[in-house]
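G., the chain you wanted modeled:
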Amino acid sequence: MARPKKKLTLEHQFASIPVRNPGVTASEGETPGSLLIEQNLVYRGLAKVFARYLPVRSRKRFLLDGLGADVYGRIDGKKTLEQLIDEFAEEHKLTFLESRALLLEYLRTLMRRGLVVAGFKMD
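Predicted structure as tokens:
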């Protein structure tokens, strides 16, 4: 008998802990307050064969400035999403909902790029 799928509730989302990808390196960017993020590229399948014989990139680079560097810098693998939202709202004088919308959208971008993952604990 198949186990029923558990739904991801808002409480689970707030309890999630964003974690930086350990395969990513961060260093100070050229401008003050910016971060240069570098990620190793891994080629699989047929792309791996082509990568062996053709000049392809081995690293992907992202430059985070201002808000992006601030959000990425707060991700320490210990704070929950709710704690990050509260912290961000208080510092930037935003409501909880404004802070949540801003952080969720930015975290979604970081996750799409493989720089951050979010851990969920489903009871």
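The CA atoms of residues 2 and 13 lie 25 Å apart.

Shout if anything looks off.
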